[in-house]
Amino acid sequence: MASYNLLLLPGDGIGPEVMAGVETVLAALRETGIARFETETDLVGGAAIDRHGKPLADETLERAKAADAILLGAVGGPKWNGVAYDIRPEAGLLRLRKDLALFANLRPAICYPALADASALKRELVEGLDIMIVRELTGGVYFGEPKEITVQADGSKRAVDTQVYTTGEIERIAHVAFDLARKRSGRVASAEKNNVMKSGVLWKEVVTQVHAEHYADVALEHVLADNCAMQLVRRPKQFDVLVTDNLFGDVLSDVAAMLTGSLGMLPSASLGAAGDGGMRRALYEPVHGSAPDIAGADKANPIAMIGSLAMCLRYSFGLGEAADLLDGAITDTLAAGTRTADIAADGAGAVGTKAMAEAIAAAVRARAA
Ligand code: NAD
Ligand code: IPM
Ligand code: MN
């Protein structure tokens, strides 16, 4: 039986609660005999600051490099508001993404049939929605230099963030988007702001060129990022694969999350380039954050985290059937009416994080029986 080594980084806030849901589901998956899953757990974010004085210890980074895949809960929270910028909790996650070269962040926004009425939008706008946001994750304004606040001669301050993209960075994310589109509906929309930003001009130029040279069979549309945000709310089903930069991808994926009913529904896969053995470095993380407002209250929806495990089975381990089994178990659980508060009508009859994870684990066992 194949054996996989998973590094679990629960992090802060609701991170440990939703990661406990992963362990509940892993126990059920192990029983099916699909594969052997070994887990190790380590600290990241605020939890690592409390222990090591920094949000990602070097040993943790080494463990991450050695693991077959990494699952991360969430980082950050008000407790660490006062720590120095360079060692804030979020810097730990950004270092993991950058040092592991996880440049492609896939954020699928799927409206489960049972949740069509949980969206902030009308049922007919979101029913059947299935968008794949492809967010560039290791470039752009997140990492461009200079990035600083300086004091001017008159004592006032000046803050600078730098948006940088190179041809190579845009080419590789464009390939990811077009390759995915070929396995889906064959349509890509590329969002940037070439009307304002030089990086947007280059983005559009490179995406156009990659398309013309390699993907004439895929339909490509360019859309300005602000219009894209509006179109996502106006008529979301016009999109299939949506490729965009790091910052626009961050914002547009939170918008897309609400189409599905809740930020607690969106999983993601952060992927590196395929290595020699075909195995690529990868980290799986929900799109949501540490949700300090509900942390510790057994209220968080674990589906984004558990869905991230399903993506791990599919993208890192090639266990497509197991991933389908787990996605199916989530569908069954929602169809049976099980809801955490964020997706329940008026919060009525909601179950907690633990009960939702147990219901999904039970659905895994039922499907596997
Ligand atoms: P957030 O995503 O943590 O929460 C936004 C809102 O969505 C809150 O009302 C929260 O209760 C709700 N929510 C989020 N996840 C949920 C879930 N699984 N179930 C039910 N409701 C859920 O965003 P924020 O409040 O802006 O940020 C809080 C902290 O999290 C900040 O420190 C931020 O930097 C960090 N953050 C981390 C990540 C990450 O680790 N990947 C992502 C986003 C934000
Ligand atoms: C996300 C988060 C992160 C980001 C933060 C916590 C660094 O918002 O994964 O969407 O901005 O990328
Ligand atoms: Mn975000």
TrEMBL record:
Residues holding Mg(2+): 226, 250, 254
Gene3D superfamilies documented for this protein: Isopropylmalate Dehydrogenase
Stretches assigned to the Isopropylmalate dehydrogenase-like domain: 5-360
Subunit annotation: Homodimer.
Highest classification ranks of the organism: Bacteria, Pseudomonadati, Pseudomonadota, Alphaproteobacteria, Hyphomicrobiales
Top EC category: oxidoreductase
Record-annotated site: Important for catalysis: 142, 193
Cofactors: Mg(2+); Mn(2+)
Keyword Magnesium assigned: yes
Alphabetized GO MF terms: 3-isopropylmalate dehydrogenase activity; magnesium ion binding; NAD binding
Family listed: Belongs to the isocitrate and isopropylmalate dehydrogenases family. LeuB type 1 subfamily.
Reactions catalysed according to its record: (2R,3S)-3-isopropylmalate + NAD(+) = 4-methyl-2-oxopentanoate + CO2 + NADH
Binding site for NAD(+): 77-90, 289-301
Protein name: 3-isopropylmalate dehydrogenase
Cofactor comment text: Binds 1 Mg(2+) or Mn(2+) ion per subunit.
